[in-house]
Amino acid sequence: MIFAVILFAVTYILLLIFPKYRAYIALVSAAIFVITGILPISNVFFAVDWNVIMMIAGTMGIVSLFIESRMPALLADMLIDKMPDVKWAIVALALFAGVISAFVDNVATVLMVAPVAVTIAKKLKISPVNSIIAIAISSNLQGAATLVGDTTSILLGGEAKMDFLDFFIYKGKPGMFFVVQVGAVLSAVVLLVLFRKEKQTIGLQERAVVTDYFPSFLLLGTIILLIMVSFIPNRPGISNGLVCMSLLVIGVVRDLIKNRSIRGLIKTFKEIDYFTLLLLAGLFIVIAGITEAGVVTKISEVFVGLSGGNIFIIFSLLVWASVLFSAFIDNIPYVATMLPVVTGIAVKMGIDPTLLYFGLIVGATLGGNLTPIGASANIAGLGILRKEGYEVKPLQFMKISVPFTIIAVLSGYILVWLIWS
């Protein structure tokens, strides 16, 4: 166990120090766990959650086709056309990014919606900084709303065996979707207050033109099929992954036939984030290794000991420690590590783990909004601004992100406790 703890600690430190090499670090660490015999080689294949891997890969590919069709740009233009001034345009774009992000990867959402904000800013000769920060943090918030909204949600679904509908109603109670929506409404009020002086009028000259409606139906079909699959009893554990991958195959085959070229096929598969998939595969094996060594059980016992067995203290520690960690480190390895720990805590205390699962997601997903480096969506947004010639200082970012995050996390913290305690 001591060797497993040291290996895991070194792995995590290296993940923090060398973010560009995270996938390779995780895979090397996984190999060491197997070579040293901590994790039997026969357990390696089953340690990887293939349902999660296939869901992420399939969704990424479908989203690539959706973005290419220009449908998100048209929807954004239609929304902006109804707004009276810049203040409402910023909030509308942020809310729109949130809605898209509930079903599409956060970074992809920012890449879709941010160019609209940049175009508006250029027309009005104003800075796009506030708009893009609002879009980034809003997309990160709504990623926790559905099963396919964020990698952390997919990880939660894998650990808790949750389906698409479970994020709406779970065990007869409101799920994460409704918790996130309350946070979205309250944080939108925060944005209205922060941008109250932005009163320039706005108007669009022309709307984006959709080049292909099929990817929109494909994305909608993914959601509908994930809902339908949730009603099938005794379904295979990789059902959700098979849905996402099957529809991706339909999308690329149709594109191949339509364009009679493999360019679209190559582009779609290039858009899949293989680095994240390799990172997750490595982490699944590492976590299986520390579980096999008894480390996860030990961490769970420490948590219970620190809290004196008080559920409210454990819940509070989990939420606010997750906020703090996620403000500075990527929440994917953090959530992947903590989910089995949370399961262990629940088993140790003899309680339903749902309260702690949702508390972890509230803290880790929403907490990433505190700082510019806490979430990939934030980094993507700042990258777009940098290309436009705007260098955003951390303090400038946090003037918007801190009040937004505090109100969103606080509302989630209170609601999850009231509903699930």
- Quickly count the domains: 1
What is the number of strand segments? 2
Q: Catalogue the unreliable spans.
A: none
Number of helices: 20
Average of pLDDT:
86
Major sheet description: 2 strands, antiparallel
Q: What share of the residues lie within helices?
A: over 70%
Order of helices and strands: HHHHHHHHHEEHHHHHHHHHHH
Rg result: 21 Å
Shape designation: globular
What portion of the residues fall into strands of 2 or more residues? under 5%
The N- and C-terminal alpha carbons lie at a distance of: 33 Å
Q: Structural class given helices, strands, pairing?
A: mainly alpha
Strand order of the largest sheet: 1-2
Quaternary state of the chains? single chain
